[in-house]
Specification:
alpha/beta; Rossmann fold; five-stranded mixed barrel; 6 helices; 9 strands; 32% helix
C-alpha cells in the first residue's frame, strides 16, 4: 500500500510540484465546479500509477490542480465507487494520495437521495454525521501505521468548526441549508421503499453510494473534513415515483450555482 501511494505521489509531483492546501472531491453532476478553478495542471486518472478510472456518467476522471480563493487546491473530478467493482482500498486510494501530496483539509460533495420527508429536490445538506454499517469499512485489513491508528476515533468525522463556517457563509449569502446524517450504501440500485423507511428509522436524512469510505480514510489520517450533499431525489413520497440517474444529474446541475458560491467562499476562508 505505502509503495503504491509513494509511486503515485512521485509521479504527480514530477508533473506538478506545488503543494495543494485543500483537496476537493466532486460528486455526480458537480463537475462544472472546476470552472471556478484557475487551472494550472490536469492529470487524467489513467496516467497515474495505481489509480482506478471513473466509469460513471457525471465523473470526468482527472485530478485538477490550481488556485481558488487564494489557495492552492487539488480537485478530484470524479470519484470511485464500490458498485463499479472496485475494492474499498481502490475507492479510497486517491484520498490517501491527496494526503501525501500535502493537503490540510478535505472537502467532499455528493448527490444523495433525500430520506428526511421535509427535504426537497435541490436542497443542499451539510453532513453532520454518518452511518457506515451498510457499506464495507475501508480500514478492514492490515493497518499501516504511516496512515493512522488501528482504531481511529470517529466522534467528529465532520469538523464542527468547518460546519459552523459554512453555516455563517450561507447565512451571509441568504442560501438555505439543511443539516443531517448521511447513510452510505453500496448501490448501484436505488433504494426500495422499504429501504428508505429503514434508513429513516435508523436516523438517516440522506442516502448515497459514496463519501463515507473517503471520510473514514481521511479521518484515519488526521485530515479535517467538510462534506455536503445535493439532494437530487426524495425517496419517501406518497405518490408513485421512479428515480433515474439522468434526473439525479439534472438536479445536481440545477443546484450547482449555490453549491459553487458556498464552496468557493469556504475555501477562501480556510
Amino acid at each position: 500500500m505505502m509503495t503504491k501511494i509513494n509511486e503515485a505521489v512521485a509521479f504527480i509531483k514530477n508533473i506538478y510540484s506545488d503543494k495543494p492546501a485543500v483537496g476537493i472531491v466532486l460528486g455526480s453532476g458537480l463537475g462544472s465546479f472546476t470552472t471556478e478553478i484557475n487551472i494550472e495542471k490536469e492529470i487524467p486518472y489513467g496516467d497515474i500509477p495505481h489509480f482506478p478510472v471513473s466509469t460513471v456518467e457525471g465523473h470526468s476522471g482527472k485530478l485538477i490542480f490550481g488556485t481558488l480563493g487564494g489557495k492552492k487546491i487539488v480537485a478530484m473530478a470524479g470519484r470511485f465507487h464500490l458498485y463499479e467493482g472496485y475494492s474499498s482500498d481502490q475507492t479510497v486510494f486517491p484520498i490517501r494520495v491527496l494526503k501525501f501530496l500535502g493537503i490540510d483539509t478535505l472537502l467532499v460533495s455528493n448527490a444523495a437521495g433525500g430520506v428526511n420527508p421535509s427535504f426537497k429536490v435541490g436542497d443542499l445538506m451539510i453532513i453532520t454525521d454518518h452511518i457506515s454499517q451498510l457499506a464495507p469499512n475501508p480500514l478492514i485489513g492490515k493497518n499501516y501505521k504511516e496512515l493512522g491508528p488501528r482504531f481511529p476515533d470517529m466522534s467528529e468525522p465532520y469538523k464542527k468548526q468547518l460546519i459552523q463556517k459554512m453555516k455563517d457563509i450561507a447565512a451571509q449569502k441568504n442560501i438555505k441549508l439543511q443539516e443531517g446524517v448521511y447513510v452510505a450504501v453500496t448501490g448501484p440500485t436505488f433504494e426500495t421503499r422499504a429501504e428508505y423507511k429503514m434508513i429513516h428509522t435508523l436516523g438517516g436524512d440522506a442516502v448515497g453510494m459514496s463519501t463515507v469510505q473517503e471520510v473514514i480514510t481521511a479521518v484515519h489520517m488526521g485530515l479535517p473534513v467538510f462534506a455536503m450533499s445535493v439532494i437530487t431525489d426524495v425517496g419517501i413520497r406518497e405518490e408513485e415515483n421512479v428515480i433515474t440517474h439522468e434526473e439525479v444529474l439534472q438536479a445536481a446541475k440545477e443546484a450547482e450555482p449555490n453549491f459553487k458560491a458556498l464552496f468557493c467562499e469556504l475555501i477562501a476562508q480556510l
